[in-house]
Amino acid sequence: MKGLVAANLKMNLTGQQTLSLVKNYTKLIKKTRNDVVVCPSYTALHLVAPVIKKSKLHLGAQDIFYEQKGAFTGEISGALLKEFGCKFSIIGHSERRNYLKESDELVNLKVKGCLKAGITPILCVGEDAYSRDGGESFSFVEKQLRACIAGVEKKNIHKVAIAYEPIWALSTSANRRDITSREITQMHNYIRKILKDIYDVRTAAGVRILYGGSVNDQNIDEILKAENVNGVLVGAASLDAKKFARIIAAFDARKQ
Ligand code: 13P
Asked: For a tag on the chain, would you pick the N or C end, based on fewer CB atoms within 10 A?
């Protein structure tokens, strides 16, 4: 299975800053055997789309609305994003769940909206520090995952990438803590098991599970020692083209 390395630029850069970053990506990332996706702000899509089109990179969004067209003021559909060549979208990021109060039900509609539009959803799940400390990380993630992929048919689930992003390990988290490769293995194996329960072994094996949470060029080798890591979702480190390129190189170099 092809790996997936995605840059979540969040709301950090202007259009011109995004353009300059993406140009640096394309200089440093000339070839890769994995899917490399850049997710800028909507306002930068028109600037970076032509540059990405000529490169090995793919374009992604940070969110979509679940309907394709109509009276939905302020929203952006998968159909509109495809105009820019967007092939991926992050869905249900913890920052949106927190600040925008996105529920599992809404995230589920967005996952289905992506599939309808032919966009690969990168569905984020992950527990907060409170659940981790209370020994409830597995039940938390299971509940979230089951609700967010409810109704996604067996024939479509391989089109969904699942990103495990523990909130307590994000670079911007207050009192953040490092995650160990053992902890990543435990959760990624658990996610695979849930998929197996819902679908079957073969179907579950075809779903990409990404890790996200302070991934950088210093810890990528350690993270890649974990089992069932089919990709990474990178925040802060993706704002530095050299660091992001080193992460991709490490990912490309790993034994599959
Ligand atoms: P950091 O890599 O900055 O922790 O962000 C992770 C993330 O939220 C990616 O979606």
From this structure: C
